[in-house]
Design goal:
Helix 8 runs parallel beside helix 9. It contains 10 helices and 5 strands, in the order ααβααβααβααβαβα. The chain is of the alpha/beta class. The chain starts with a helix and ends in an 11-residue tail after the last helix.
C-alpha cells in the first residue's frame, strides 16, 4: 500500500513544481557537490599552509621580498637564499599543487607578505592531471587577477613549464601552454614570462638528463644552478641600470 502512495506523492510533486523546478533543484545539488569537491581539494594542502603560517609567526619574513610560489620544483629549491644572496627571498612551494591551488591560498600565502616581486612555477602538475594548455593559461590569468585585486602594482613572473623527461609525453601540451602564457604576459602590465624550457633541452630538442634528478621529474643541483642563471637577471638587485 505504501509503494503506490509514494509514487502518487512523487507525481503530485512533479506536477506542482514543474520540470523547470525539478531541474533547478538538481542543478543546485550539482553545484553544491562541485563546491564540496573543490573545498576538499583545497584541504589537501591545509597542513602545508598552516606550517607556513606557523613559521611566519615565529620568524616573520621580510616585506617587499621576492616571493617564489608554486609546486615541488619551488619547494625543493633548497639553495634559493644562497643562490640569490643579497636579495630578500621567500620560498612557498608546496608539493603537488596546481596553479588554481596557489590562487586558492593566495590570501594566506601571497598577500600577507606584501612581496615586491612574485615568481610562480606552475602548469606542470596541471597538465599531468589532464588540464588543457588553455586551462593552464586561464588559471594563471585567474591568479594574476586575484593578486592584482589587492596588490595592483606587484610584478608577476611566470617561470615556464620545464621539459621533464618523466613527462616528455606531454611535451606538445607543455610547449602550447608556455606559448599561451608567454603571449598573455606580453600583453599584460608588469607580467614577465621566463623561458626555462629552451635552456634545459639539448641541440636535438631533448631534455638534458644531466639537469634532472633520478626521478626524471625534478631538477638536480646542476638544474637549479641553470635556473639561477636564467632567473637572476630578473630580480631587482641584479637588473642592469640604464
Amino acid at each position: 500500500m505504501l509503494g503506490p502512495l509514494l509514487v502518487f506523492g512523487q507525481s503530485i510533486r512533479h506536477a506542482l513544481l514543474g520540470p523547470w523546478a525539478v531541474g533547478f533543484v538538481a542543478a543546485c545539488c550539482a553545484w553544491l557537490a562541485v563546491g564540496a569537491q573543490a573545498q576538499a581539494g583545497s584541504g589537501q594542502w591545509e597542513s602545508a599552509i598552516q606550517a607556513f603560517e606557523a613559521v611566519d609567526r615565529t620568524n616573520p619574513p621580510p616585506s617587499q621580498a621576492c616571493l617564489f610560489v608554486g609546486s615541488s620544483s619551488i619547494r625543493l629549491w633548497k639553495t634559493l637564499a644562497e643562490d640569490f644572496a643579497g636579495v630578500k627571498v621567500i620560498n612557498r612551494g608546496f608539493d603537488g599543487s596546481q596553479i588554481e591551488d596557489v590562487t586558492s591560498f593566495a590570501d594566506r600565502m601571497v598577500m600577507p607578505y606584501r612581496p615586491g616581486l612574485i615568481l610562480l612555477y606552475g602548469g606542470d602538475n596541471d597538465l599531468a592531471a589532464g588540464k588543457t594548455p588553455d586551462r593552464v593559461c586561464a588559471d594563471f590569468r585567474g591568479f594574476v587577477e586575484k593578486v592584482r585585486a589587492k596588490l595592483p602594482d606587484v610584478p608577476i613572473l611566470f617561470i615556464s613549464i620545464k621539459p621533464s623527461p618523466a613527462r616528455w609525453s606531454l611535451v606538445d601540451k607543455v610547449r602550447s601552454a608556455n606559448r599561451l602564457v608567454e603571449a598573455y604576459a606580453r600583453r599584460g602590465r608588469n607580467l614577465v614570462y621566463i623561458d626555462v624550457f629552451t635552456p634545459l633541452v639539448d641541440a636535438d630538442g631533448q631534455p638534458r638528463a644531466d639537469l634532472f634528478a633520478e626521478d626524471k621529474l625534478h631538477l638536480n643541483a646542476k638544474g637549479y644552478a641553470r635556473w639561477r642563471e636564467i632567473i637572476k637577471p630578473h630580480l631587482p638587485s641584479h637588473k642592469t641600470k640604464e
